[in-house]
Amino acid sequence: MSKGRDGAGAGGGAAAAVLLRYLREQNRPYSAQDAFSNLQREHGLGKAAVVKALEQLAQQGRVREKAYGKQKVYFADQEQLPAASDAELRGLDAQIAALCGQVQALQQSCRQMEAELKDLSSSMTTPEMAKEIKELKRDCESYTEKLERMKSATNHVTPEEKEKVCSEQKLYCREWRRRKRMATELLDAILEGYPKSKKQFFEEVGIETDEEHNVVLPAAV
Asked: Which residues pair with 31 in a beta bridge?
């Protein structure tokens, strides 16, 4: 920032007057950067001029200065501000209560809008719905055609035939379990006196297990 920019728009005294009035009107703490950002456009103050004016005001006791690490904030001296009357304080309390009510109402409205937005965001758009309906209609036509072919077929399985197949399956599964158990017991007895591992024995004899071929005993129907 050039010196011309720092001095443009207001001299040192003018800058101090602007800052003092601003701090008293806002009555809240500001850093030099915040004050510069808020006032540079309206008053043409440069950052160096703002820093210098705030330091002078603090040295003169016209504003208060408080340091937070490397950061400094400035605020109006409360003792120099006019004291509010009881009526003014009651009026301010009423304004605060009214504003709090407005804030709560706005927060509730925002929550409702956010919920509506979430629902809308998760919903399909009109083109997406049209595409989905088209696909569903095509699926329905395909299923209807398939159902008609099944109804018109002459090779339906009768309940008696189904019962016979289920009974045979139960019989074969039961026999499968019995034979597998017998084979397992026999092999375990042989392996008790076999000097090598179970895997080597199976390889030498040529035994293949259900697990090797991913064969699983089917559930009974």
From this structure: 73
